[in-house]
Automatic annotation (TrEMBL):
One of its GO terms (molecular function) is DNA-binding transcription factor activity. PROSITE patterns: HTH_ARSR_2 (PS50987). Residues 27-126 form the HTH arsR-type domain. This is HTH arsR-type domain-containing protein. NCBIfam families: HTH_metalloreg (NF033788). It comes from Corynebacterium callunae DSM 20147. CDD domains: HTH_ARSR. The keyword Membrane does not apply. It comes from the Bacteria.
Amino acid sequence: MTSATSFPTAASPLPHPEVGFDAVPHEVAEIAAEASKFYKALGDCTRLEILYLIATSTHSKVSANLLANTLNISAPTVTHHMKKLLAANLVTRKQCGKWAYFSIHSENAHLVSQIFETSDAATTVE
């Protein structure tokens, strides 16, 4: 059986010679680093669950203790996940005495709401 499309093999040369690239501009590298933090933060189920709980809370702030109890995870695990969400500017932290409270970062509130609007639409049965 012959194929209409032929692909280069290791033995055959590529159709075009390798073209060199200039260095990635510093500004682009910074944007890429920020985007990487953002998407890595969203790439974990527990962090998405934390974001959902904070975003859908009837209170403006949610304590780390409440998150740990609700998700049945340890306080250090919540702290680990919150560091990633804070670094990605998805949440903000306010310390009140010995308690830490979190809310959705106003800069990315629209993105967080879009994530969960999409998931709500996907789970709605018509």
